[in-house]
Amino acid sequence: MQEDLDFIIEDTEDSMKKAINHLESELTRIRAGKVSPTMLDGITVEYYDAPTPISQVANLQVQDARTLTITPWEKKMLAQIERAIMGANIGVTPQNDGIQIRLFMPPLTEERRREMVKKASGEGEQAKVAIRNIRRDSIEQIKKLQKDGLSEDIAKGSEKTIQEITDKYTSVVEKHLAAKEKEMMTI
């Protein structure tokens, strides 16, 4: 029984870490006024009949705080990369000069910054919901063990441990959101 409890607690913590990692990756995609190659993560182009991330078919380089250049390794990929960026609707129009593509980030308005903060908050709320769902599932597993003969005191202690882990990861979500909001609201 103790092995099962240890496994449940360990699995709970691992799952919550995954939820935090997912939140971190989603927050990096939200633009905070400065350009980053990660804003192109998730955008793919057809390369030899396989969907391939842009970063695997081109060199991505940050020129300055608002300019990202994309230099494809094969010239024929220029048009496909340009179409993929347009289709991804990331709020930037690519500028193709025949050799490379430039993305010029317009300065964020106050209104747009607030929209970005709302989007980040939504991602944070999704992470919190995921963490609460993990907690619920873990407590259900502990209750099943209790029906199979686990003492009530041990079950309550384990549920308390699960709640402490939940609180810890919820506060991590809050810290990430606060840092992202601060980053987005500073000009």
Question: Explain this structure to me?
Answer:
This protein has 187 residues and is of the alpha+beta class. The protein has 2 domains: 2-29 and 109-185, Orthogonal Bundle (Topoisomerase I, Chain A, domain 4), CATH 1.10.132; 37-104, Gyrase A, domain 2. It is built from 4 helices and 6 strands; from the N terminus they run H-E-E-E-E-H-E-E-H-H. It has helices spanning 2-29, 78-88, 110-147, 152-185; strands at residues 44-47, 50-53, 58-64, 67-72, 94-96, 101-104. The longest helix is centred in the last third of the chain and has 38 residues, at 110-147. The radius of gyration is 22 Å and the shape is elongated.
Attribute tags:
187 residues, alpha+beta, Topoisomerase I, Chain A, domain 4, Gyrase A, domain 2, 2 domains, 4-stranded antiparallel beta sheet, two-stranded antiparallel ribbon, 6 strands
